[in-house]
Design brief:
Two copies of one chain form a homodimer. Chain A is mainly alpha-helical. Chain A has helices at about 10-15, 35-40, 55-60, 105-120, 130-145, 150-160, 165-199, and strands spanning about 65, 70-75. The first copy, chain A, is built from seven helices and two strands; from the N terminus they run αααββαααα. Chain A is extended, with a radius of gyration of 25 Å. The interface between A and B is large, with 60 and 65 residues. Chain A binds a DNA duplex through α4 and α7. Chains A, B: Its main location: nucleus.
DNA sequence: TTTTAATATAATTTG
DNA sequence: CAAATTATATTAAT
């Protein structure tokens, strides 16, 4: 998350954004729109609500790679998810997205191809935690299921994971715990209730 | 008809301390920042004063009622996401159909029971907006991302939602816009930077 | 099939 | 109200 430091300047950048009329200032209470007109499907087919998927891990990557000649090459983002371009090339398990469509595929190739696909669909490749990572995470979780940023960072360092992975892991872990609690509670209530009916 | 509510809609006292949902016992809110110390089993308990949470939507709650026979019946509000199709009807929270509780629980019952429980855990059940509701909200948002109370009320009426839901929706929507704005700015700066390296 | 990492977004809390 | 978090419903990878 430390990335935004680059964001500071470049005013020209914001100009080329479609739509987005700086939403903080104009409160446009003047706009005469009726809900009926909207319900009546007044379609302004302009920019459909910038449904930009959130792909934070892509921010860290760059299209720049060094070739064998030690010269930079720009790798063109090939992707089409919706109509946006996404570029890969970065992160843990890294594969090249230059699709060489010339032969048939080994198991390994097929695997990475699958990973490619999911990549292009815009989803972060699923992280496979090691047994040790899980163990540590579980131990920490036992003591504190809401670790603050400092603990998460420390964990990230020690376990060699992104802090983001840690945070997500804790989120999912809490959800899991809650699920199991709910289930046992349900059973308890159900049993209590059921037996109360039998008395 | 002559039902008497046994269930005061109040999960009294309860959890809902800041950051300490009730399903895990008291947790350290103040942490010492070393994983070693955590792994080394440092436990620390501190009671935090509970404040009564604001749960306005619980006021309508009546689950356990006495029937005419003076026996308890469990009334389970059933959310109809409609098992049939994926659309239509909104407002899961509001439309309640009563299931008479007998011996066993169907999958549907179980589900809604679980929802009940989470309800009592203190959080409003997540509202699932319909496609149409979203569409209208998005359209309004395009024109005015800060609708006043009157517009919100009107929307609420037309979309059959609480005005509160509308308000929250707009808040979240503004946050989303802002986020995406930030992100595209970042990407642009990044790309500018990258291509400047190629010149 | 089951579990769970990842995503999107509704709800809550703070200031 | 915005910002930051948290919860949760889904989706999809394994």
């Amino acid at each position: 998350m430390a990335s935004t430091s680059l964001c500071a300047a470049n005013p020209s950048a914001s100009q080329s954004l479609r739509k987005v009329p700086g939403f903080v200032e104009n409160k446009t209470t003047q706009c005469s729109f009726s809900i009926e007109s909207i319900l009546g499907l007044e379609q302004k087919k302009d920019g459909i609500a910038a449904a930009k998927p959130h792909r934070p891990w892509m921010d860290a990557c760059t299209n720049l790679v060094l070739g064998d000649d030690n010269n930079p090459h720009l790798q063109i983002p090939v992707v089409s998810y919706d109509n946006s371009l996404f570029h890969a090339n970065s992160n843990p398990v890294q594969e090249e997205k230059v699709l060489k469509c010339d032969k048939y595929f080994s198991v390994t190739e097929r695997l990475s191809f699958k990973r490619e696909l999911s990549w292009y669909r815009g989803r972060r490749p699923r992280t496979a935690f090691t047994r040790n990572q899980i163990e540590v995470l579980e131990n920490v979780f036992k003591m504190n299921s809401y670790p603050g940023i400092d603990i998460r960072e420390e964990l990230a360092r020690k376990l060699d994971l992104d802090e983001d992975r840690i945070q997500i892991w804790f989120q999912n872990r809490r959800a899991k715990l809650k699920r199991s609690h709910r289930e046992s509670q349900f059973l308890m209530v159900k049993n209590n209730f059921t037996s109360s009916l039998l008395e």
